[in-house]
Amino acid sequence: MKRIQLLLAMTAILFLATGCEINRKKILTVEQLPEAAQTYIKENMPEAKVLYVKKDRKNFKTYYEVKFDNLMELEFDSKGEIYDIDVDD
């Protein structure tokens, strides 16, 4: 009986953990980015079209990923400061 209870408890924890992981990323609009990130995009990427903006939580910190039609991807921290630039080949 205790084995069954332990198995059920472990299964419940697994479902809760994966459920939390699924809800980490959210799709946003450019207007929902921090002001500093919006300014950076307007000044440095005026011709590029934004394909999507994702809000992500990693290690209890918020990050924003912005993908453009020119294959460039920018990542901003919660203050809107850029911390990564990636270009797909």
What does this molecule look like?
By secondary structure, the chain is of the alpha+beta class. The protein has one domain: Inhibitor of vertebrate lysozyme, Ivy (3-Layer(aba) Sandwich), CATH 3.40.1420.30. It is built from two helices and five strands. The protein has a five-stranded antiparallel beta sheet with strand order 1-2-3-4-5, with no helix packed on it. A hairpin with a 4-residue loop joins strand 4 and strand 5. It starts with a helix and ends with a strand.
Give a quick rundown of the structure.
The chain has 89 residues and is α+β, with helices and mostly antiparallel strands. It has helices spanning 2-22, 35-44, and strands at residues 26-28, 50-58, 61-68, 72-77, 82-87. It has a single domain, classed as Inhibitor of vertebrate lysozyme, Ivy, CATH 3.40.1420.30.
**Beta strands, count:** 5
Tell me the CATH architecture.
3-Layer(aba) Sandwich
- Rg on CA atoms, Å: 18 Å
Order of helices and strands: HEHEEEE
Spatial gap, N to C terminus = 56 Å
For the record, the CATH class is Alpha Beta
SS summary, helix count = 2
Mean pLDDT level: 85
Largest sheet data: 5 strands, antiparallel
Our count of domains comes out at 1
Unreliable stretches, pLDDT < 50, 5 or more residues?
none
Question: Considering DSSP H and I runs of 4 or more, what fraction of the residues is helical?
Answer: 25-40%
The dominant shape is elongated
Structural class: alpha+beta
Strand order of the largest sheet: 1-2-3-4-5
CATH-defined topology: Inhibitor of vertebrate lysozyme, Ivy
Q: Strand share of the residues?
A: 35-45%
